[in-house]
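Quick one: structure tokens for this chain, please?
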Amino acid sequence: MGVGSANERLLDQVSAFEADLVIFIHADVIRPVTLGQLKDRFPGVKFAQVGVDPLFMPGNVQRLNTKSPHLDATFMTTAGESLKKISSGRPAYYIPNIVDSGIETGQAFDAVCDIDLLFVCGSFDREGGDPRQARINLIRERLPDINFPYHVDHEKSGLWGADQMWPQPVA
């Protein structure tokens, strides 16, 4: 489709669907100028972005901040003071990770599991600057007796798709 066509189609789609809310997730091809056009053409529509990548990843804060001035809010799976780095003065909110089955059910601690702690991510910074790797090492050092598997795509096999979610639904 191409970047230009994607931006044109977005303008058409918001109009066609008569949207009240448009949420952008991993929408790097959507240009800030297009967001400005959306806000001008559809002043009653709310626009937000959701970020699930950590804010310490190179380029992530800048990527979020290029769109923030044109959005009504930003939602992040990162909490705390780091939210102040994003959103260009617009509201920024913490949301739980969207793949946790306990979010909707309120049943996060009801399942029986032989795993004490699980860590899954796409990759670590290969240059060694990723604080998640240091945190894993510290946990393993201080709590050597816990069952703590981790899956990092370039180190071990990654976990992909809904079939890998835990706990599995009971049939």
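The two ends are 40 Å apart (CA to CA).
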